[in-house]
Amino acid sequence: MRVDISRMEEEQAKIILQETGGLAIITIHRPHKRNALTANMWNQLAEIGEKVLDNPKNKVLLLRGHGEQFTAGSDIGEFHEMSLDEAENSFILMEKAISTIEKLPLPTIGVINGPAMGAGLELALACDLRIGSEKARLGIPVGKLGITINNKFAKRVVDLVGPSVTKELVYLGRILKAEEAYSLGMLNYLANETELDRYALRMGKLVASMSPASLLAVKQSVNECINSTPALWTGSTPFVDQQDFSEGVAAFVEKRAPKFKRRTNS
């Protein structure tokens, strides 16, 4: 029975690509785990993101989560079974996938129905535009996990909400509801949940009707204006704190409050 359940869960964990009418639609599908991505799924996302460019008919990418979740981010339970080095490598795969989406020479639209947390928020912010339903929830609840935020992640948030709010989201573990995220600029548009997919398709088709040269030029020009942060994530700025990460992940899995030890400068 355990093997059957495991096989069923593996079948449910997938990244789906659909292509229709000039739109490429990527869906994160892992409903039994709030669409949380494993290391393998992050790798799949990067590969599928690159595959979108193989079809010259694709003019716009829509990125969404299955059901009432965008994605809870990386699978914390999987981290509990990894060494610190393996966990760090998983984060590197995560950043590779997010950067792949971010750097696509196509307009990208994140469709946010439900929570977009941690790495899920970062993935949403890597999209050019974001549409959220009233169920959208955005946050960076890493303070209880010992996950560190490097400058690439921080810059994606700071560019939209500023340095103080970025720190607040981590310091307090605060989760933004849809209206507040919209008012801060994290969401470009709000739509009723029942209309969200149709709204996103209409917007995608509208964008796809514009001059590809104009779209690419504005995306490249904007990126050149704001992308002045060096890529420190490749090793000099680790994602995993050597002490707090193990305790934070264990506490998450065991459903208890973490017991972090006080640090000294020595």
Could you explain the architecture of this structure?
- The protein has 266 residues and is α/β, with parallel strands linked by helices.
- It has one domain: 2-enoyl-CoA Hydratase, Chain A, domain 1.
- It has helices at residues 2-12, 39-51, 76-79, 84-103, 119-125, 151-161, 163-171, 178-184, 196-208, 212-226, 244-254; strands at 14-20, 23-29, 60-65, 108-112, 115-117, 129-132, 137-139, 175-177, 189-190.
- The strands form two sheets. Strands 1-2-3-4-6-9 form a six-stranded mixed sheet, sandwiched between helices. Strands 5-7-8 form a three-stranded mixed sheet.
- Strand 1 and strand 2 form a beta hairpin.
- It is globular, with a radius of gyration of 18 Å.
- The N and C termini lie far apart (51 Å).
- The model is unreliable at 1-8 (pLDDT under 50).
Can you give keywords for this protein?
266 residues, alpha/beta, 2-enoyl-CoA Hydratase, Chain A, domain 1, 3-stranded mixed beta sheet, 11 helices, 45% helix, 15% strand, globular
